[in-house]
Design brief:
By secondary structure, this protein is of the alpha+beta class. It has six helices and seven strands; from the N terminus they run ααααααβββββββ.
Length: 175
């Protein structure tokens, strides 16, 4: 009887000491960020956000994307933060996020994509770009993977070096 009670007591102690989901990942992200291991920090902050959907984790995802030189990704994350977590943010945090959005816009590359047929599916770095024959998308500077496809046509794949404003024409997909 006494052994069963001791086992139950140790189980209860373990439950009392357990952290909420995502907390360990968040702390690991902070440690990695402080060590300037931004790739690991990003993984940990994304895991933390997936586990608990906290504004602080998403904010740190954006901060880490910025440190990695990914301004378009950081902008998209901040816009999501403002959209999905506005009620959790202080006025100062909202103002800081909005100011950072403006700052990050200066480093974003913009792809202008023209396709035919106009209903072709356009995917940049795995993300679908909605629109018709002419589409605009903010991307991080550097090499971007572009895939254009439409029923009855062969897919076109290109690597585009995005810097500033880059125009991409896919006048007609081959049948």
């Amino acid at each position: 009887m006494r052994a069963r009670w001791a086992a139950t007591l140790s189980l209860c102690a373990g439950v009392a000491l357990a952290e909420p989901p995502g907390i360990a990942e968040f702390h690991a992200g902070v440690a990695a960020y402080q060590a300037r291991d931004y790739a690991t920090a990003l993984e940990r902050f994304e895991a933390s956000y997936a586990a608990r959907r906290a504004a602080s984790a998403l904010s740190n995802v954006a901060l880490t994307q910025k440190a990695l030189g990914r301004p378009a990704s950081a902008r998209a994350t901040l816009l999501r933060l403002l959209r999905d977590h506005a009620s959790e943010l202080s006025e100062a945090d909202r103002a800081a996020a909005e100011a950072t959005l403006i700052e990050l816009a200066k480093g974003v590359a913009r792809l202008s994509i023209e396709v035919s047929p106009g209903d072709a599916v356009v995917v940049v770095d795995g993300a679908r770009v909605e629109g018709g024959a002419a589409r605009e998308v903010e991307v991080d500077p550097g090499a971007r993977e572009l895939v254009v496809s439409a029923p009855g046509f062969r897919d076109e794949r290109r690597t585009v070096d995005a810097a500033g404003r880059t125009r991409v024409e896919v006048l007609r997909l081959d049948e």
